[in-house]
Amino acid sequence: MTTPSARAFGTNLVAMPTPMNSDFSLDDAGITSLVKHLVDTGCDGIVVAGTTGESPTLSEDELVRLIELAVAAAAGRAKIVAGVGTNDTVSSVRRARLAAHAGADGLLVVTPYYSRPTQTGVVSHCSAIADSTDLPVMLYDVPHRTGLAMTPATLIELAGHPRILAVKDATGDIPRAMAIMATSTLEFYCGSDELNLPFLAAGAIGIVSVVGAVIAADEARLIAAVRTGDLVSARSVNAAIIETTAALNGAAPAPVTTKLALVELGVITSATVRPPLEQATGAEAALVLAALENRVPASA
């Protein structure tokens, strides 16, 4: 793909969990190992400090450290997109500037949660962040977490900003996405793993995936198959990853399941998550481990 968004962010992005030591500190070696694993297995973009990265628990100093380690480990082979959105515009602007200084390639900006401003407030918030650096911006529309959806009119208005190029759509509303794609320059990334295939077929430029932490190569095959119009192969890939997708997105919160899977695969050494998240129960862990054991690498 040669669209502005593909050049800015990539197409096969992984929402990366943040490796932590048992004392809840950042695991520098684990971060480096994980980034290298993701790039080696097929992703061309990595979102750090997003929801799966436990962004609400990361300090600004930790955000900077995480970005610096990811940029160094990726070594130019994948774009590093930093989650900087909060429900405080001033804090978000500051985080955006810190991310730019740390070497991030792009910014992910979530709808202001809890505060729930008007749509005019959402436009002002996102525009202020986009104005604060020269980095390209991907919006993040995830109303089931934030309690606030971006309306189509808001997304179309924000698409007029020269640095707001894309949206990670976790609404699950494909007809709405198609309508916006038909009337604006904003490019869509699917933010709901179970809908990656239909979103791509409907015109999404790429995905931002939780399950990609484990199956980035399969996700790359899925994207390539849809891109070339080979829907038979795309459906085959999709069928092969359904169990893994369901387990990593449903057994427990994504940071919990992805870290557990990555420990099982030998990529990181600790599945520690920060409170209020908790380690997987025996039943939750069993679902994840069964999915890994049953997984057959897809081919397209």
From TrEMBL:
One GO CC term on file: cytosol
Entry's EC annotation: 4.3.3.7
InterPro entries reported in the protein's UniProt record: Aldolase_TIM, DapA, DapA-like, Schiff_base-form_aldolases_AS, Schiff_base-form_aldolases_CS
Name of the protein described by the UniProt record: 4-hydroxy-tetrahydrodipicolinate synthase
UniProt pathway annotation: Amino-acid biosynthesis; L-lysine biosynthesis via DAP pathway; (S)-tetrahydrodipicolinate from L-aspartate: step 3/4
Keywords: Amino-acid biosynthesis, Cytoplasm, Diaminopimelate biosynthesis, Lyase, Lysine biosynthesis, Schiff base
SMART domains: DHDPS
